[in-house]
Specification:
The protein is α/β, with parallel strands linked by helices. The chain contains 36 helices and 37 strands.
């Protein structure tokens, strides 16, 4: 009776063993992967990929790219007629403000057709760890959709399943967040159950265009995107966004997102059969075999099992092809295989078969694992050598079997320290994983590399046996070294970063204190580097930074440490005993070093540097204090000694403290209304008639009296008070001009604009409202702008200027001739006039160069239709000379100093014109 049911009992035991251990997953995946290969189908063509590929990286530069590129790409995609655009790029952290603003404007122009990625990640370490949804920056999220881009990797390291989305903790409740694939497919399904991706969809049939082709407006690339949903993501292997998928392939994450979307579009969201169905099929199989077992010979049973197996796979393939249902036939095939084994057991010895099965199973496992598996006898001679070991060491099976294990070690005389020698050691080494050690291995070609070995031992029929699982960890070691390098160095220049510098500087200070030495820290800034970036581009600026780093590192060498702190700032830390002279001489030498142009990006670029120097111990006791003081000295150098160096002194920090005190007093001055406006007359040089007044702010301090403007205006312009003060100045000046207008005096009032007024709020709207409230005629308001305003966001400034001119307000370029690109501004911006800076007017009678500049400026302005006001006129001879040059308007102490409104009105706004002219004289 028992013998009659023994084959079926064997099958049940085998199924329970395999089912509980989960080993059938390998077969299940293999069978499903085979169906993918047999059931190929093309992509729908509704989705296109804009690939960040090697050609794009080569053309644009090192990743990550400025977000201005993504903004331009969005515009090109809109021009191409793309339906919707998805980015598989992280936008959860800010870059620089200008690039973020440009991208935000691109999103706004796209009008809600863009989706940005969100992804889940651990929010903390340890017992308080939780899942955090990393979302795009708030300003981006308000103008774009968000979708999850997380890709779940199965236990075998491959991506098989995907979900329409997930319920995520957002705020105080759970919200369903759609996945990127579901968005691309246009699905509105709200379910978080996963489906299997149909890898039968041919990834090579997907529409792909290169990022750089779209960015440059290539006609063919744009035509390929018309009417399609577009996803932008990385396909370049150097960006490391790759995943293993079935059938031994490796695909970029962006391609996986599209395959998931294609599965939804083509209704190929593969669903697996239930466990109940599998169990029912297994029971049916057992019943069939029970009924037929004793009626068929062994050969016919084997033939029946073969036909059943083929039939099962045929049905599974049809279900897969027509109904997108995945029938897991692995347990059925295992059951059939067990019945084949049972059939053989009827013909052969049972114990011999079990032994053969055990050996075969071990061999299959040994030969299929990716790691190297080596077994040795008690003499440490190799008896088993799997393909993983062949791949690692390069020795074929025939040439290594029987060789001592020591042959695999770089030092063959290292002994047998890897292996336990006594049976007493066996319990520990028989534990899962055994004892794990590292040693240096040697490949067949002689290369030495690090190896991780997990050693186990057991008592076999021929004595103590050993098993060793070997892994090549050279890649892991290199990656760990790379991570450490990135944590300690600046990626652009290869210099150490601020964190590493502080650690090295602290060690250098400790060594110097022990040796009664001193340590010098020089913080170096590249002068006008922002101008290089603005004029020649950030890519060229990177070339300049690398060239500067090479020059500093080459000069300092092993004497000290060279670091890049941030932006265009570098630092040199060096013991004073290693300088070969004084610290002042070293600073002067470094400044002189940069008098030779840098070789950057295939061209010569001249760059000056400013240096701030602090010396331990007098310049700072700790590394942090020394770095802070050296940076303060650099700020002083850039302000007062550009192109040279400044040694830190306590007065510098005291000056900073005085500035902080002044900022606090200025805050109180705003609250207490201690500011006043003075007005300086502007005169028609031919008639002597006062035609305007420039409004100039003054501060009447409660204890110090009238504070000179040079003592507080620079602080106001660089403090948070700037906008509030500028707003008060304009409002007060407009009210005063309106008061004069109502009194019958059409006096044009000039108001200096502040850069802060362009950075926050809407200046044109404010001026329009102010003119409406005060009733001032727009022609009587003249706004004076300086070059630092024009340098900020040229498109935005240009738009504001156009709106101001539309109101009827005049725009005048102040301090003309003192900046970098004044002539180009006359062409770019809608200006009504300019003011010649006092530095050219002061010596116009004695300096021929000044006279030539003033004459040329007046002539140019006349041809451009611009009015001209000369500042700084201090005598009648200068006024007459300017009039002969063609300058019709002037301003200066010769006509009147800045004065309160009452004094201005009393002196210049009398009814008697002759008296007014006499007052001006």
């Amino acid at each position: 009776m028992f013998r009659r049911f023994m084959p079926h009992i064997l099958v049940v035991v085998a199924l329970l063993t395999v089912g509980l251990s989960g080993c059938y997953d390998l077969l299940s995946h293999a069978l499903i992967d085979l169906r993918f290969r047999l059931d190929k189908r093309p992509a729908s063509g509704e989705i296109a990929i804009v690939a960040i590929d090697p050609r794009s990286i080569e053309a644009i530069g090192v990743w990550p790219w400025p977000r201005t590129n993504h903004a331009l790409l969005l515009d090109q995609l809109q021009r191409a007629g793309a339906r919707e655009v998805a980015f598989d790029i992280d936008f959860s952290t800010p870059s620089n403000a200008a690039a973020d603003h440009a991208f935000l404007e691109g999103l706004q122009r796209a009008s809600g057709t863009v989706v940005l990625p969100a992804f889940k990640q651990l929010s903390a370490a340890g017992k308080d760890a939780g899942i955090h949804i990393n979302r795009p920056l708030p300003q981006f999220e308000t103008t774009a959709w968000s979708a999850l881009v997380n890709i779940e990797v199965a236990r075998d390291g491959r991506v098989r399943s995907y979900a329409f989305g997930e319920y995520c903790e957002i705020g105080h409740g759970k919200t369903f967040v759609q996945s990127m694939g579901a968005f691309l497919a246009g699905s509105d399904a709200i379910k978080d159950s996963p489906f299997l991706i149909d890898y039968g969809i041919d990834a090579s049939s997907l529409t792909k265009v290169s990022y750089v082709d779209v960015l440059r407006g290539d006609a063919a690339a744009l035509a390929a995107l018309k009417g399609k949903r577009v996803i932008v993501g990385a396909t370049a292997i150097e960006l490391s966004d790759y995943y293993s998928v079935p059938n031994g392939r490796v695909l970029p994450g962006v391609v996986l997102q599209v395959l998931a979307a294609e599965s939804i579009i083509q209704h190929r969201t593969l669903l697996t059969t239930s466990t109940a169905a599998i169990v029912g099929a297994l029971l049916l199989l057992v019943v069939v075999m029970l009924a037929s077992w004793r009626h068929l010979s062994a050969a016919r049973r084997a033939l029946l099992i073969g036909f059943i197996g083929i039939g099962i796979e045929t049905v599974a393939l049809l279900l897969h092809d027509r109904y997108a249902v995945v029938l897991d036939t692995s347990l059925l095939q295992i059951a059939l295989f067990a019945y084949l084994v049972a059939t053989a057991l009827d013909e052969i010895d049972f114990r011999g078969l079990l032994r053969h099965v055990a050996e075969s199973r071990f061999e299959r496992i040994a030969m299929s694992i990716g790691d190297g598996l080596v077994c040795t006898d008690q003499d440490k001679r190799i008896t088993v050598w799997n393909p993983g070991a062949v791949a690692i060491f390069g020795y074929g099976t025939e040439e290594i079997i029987g060789q001592p294990f020591a042959r695999l070690r770089a030092d063959e005389n290292a002994g047998d320290d890897l292996f336990p020698h006594q049976e007493a050691a066996l319990p520990a080494t028989l534990l899962p994983g055994g004892a794990t050690v590292e040693f240096d291995g040697r490949r067949r070609d002689g290369e030495v590399f690090p190896v991780e070995a997990s050693v186990s031992a057991w008592q076999g029929p021929d004595g103590l046996q050993y098993g060793v699982i070997l892994r090549d960890i050279s890649l892991r070691k290199r990656e760990a070294e790379r991570i450490r390098y990135l944590a300690e160095h600046d990626t652009l220049t290869g210099l150490i970063n601020r964190h590493t510098l502080q650690a090295d500087l602290a060690a250098m200070i400790a060594t110097a204190d022990a040796a009664n030495d001193r340590v010098a820290l020089l913080v170096i800034g590249l002068d006008a580097f922002q101008h290089i970036n603005d004029m020649l581009g950030h890519s060229f600026g990177d070339h300049v930074l690398r060239a500067a780093a090479e020059r500093l590192a080459g000069e300092i060498g092993r004497m000290g440490r060279v670091a890049r702190l941030s932006g265009d700032e570098f630092a040199v830390a060096i013991p004073c005993s290693a300088t070969g002279g004084t610290v002042t001489e070293l600073a002067a030498h470094l400044a002189h070093l940069f008098e030779t142009p840098l070789e950057a990006g295939g061209r010569q670029q001249r760059v000056r540097i400013s240096l701030g120097v602090a010396v331990h111990p007098e310049g700072g006791q700790s590394a942090e204090e020394l770095l802070s003081n050296a940076h303060l000295a650099l700020c002083r150098a850039k302000t007062d000694h550009r192109g040279s160096h400044v040694m830190f002194e306590t007065e510098i920090r005291e000056e900073l403290e005085r500035r902080l005190t002044l900022e606090a007093e200025l805050t109180l001055a705003v609250e207490r209304r201690e500011f006043e406006l003075f007005y300086q007359p502007q005169v028609n040089l031919l008639s002597g008639r006062v035609i305007g007044a420039e409004a100039l702010i003054r501060w009447r301090h409660p204890t110090r009296g009238l504070v000179p403007p040079g003592d507080f205006i620079p602080v106001v312009n660089t403090s948070p008070l700037s906008e509030a003060v500028a707003t008060w100045v304009m409002a007060t000046a407009c009210r005063q001009a309106r008061e004069w207008q109502l009194a019958g005096h059409d006096i044009r009032v000039g108001v200096n604009l502040s850069p802060s007024q362009f950075q926050t709020g809407d200046l044109a709207a404010f001026v329009s409202k102010l003119l409406t409230v005060t009733g001032l005629s727009p022609s009587l308001l003249e706004l004076e702008v300086t070059e630092d305003i024009l340098l900020h966001d040229e498109p935005g400034v240009l738009q504001t200027f156009n709106r101001l001119q539309a109101l009827g307000v005049s725009l005048v370029f102040d301090d003309f001739g003192t900046g970098y690109a004044s002539l180009s501004y006359l062409k770019k911006f809608p200006l009504d006039g300019l003011k010649i800076d006092r530095s050219f007017v002061r010596d116009v009678l004695t300096e021929s160069d000044d006279a030539a500049i003033v004459g040329s400026t007046v002539s140019l302005s006349s041809q451009l239709g611009l009015s001209v006001i000369a500042e700084g006129i201090e005598n009648q001879a200068t006024a007459d000379f300017l009039l002969r040059l063609g300058c019709a308007q002037g301003q200066g102490y010769h006509f009147g100093k800045p004065m309160p409104a009452q004094d201005f009105a009393r002196r210049f706004l009398t009814v008697d014109e002759g008296a007014r002219q006499a007052g001006a004289a």
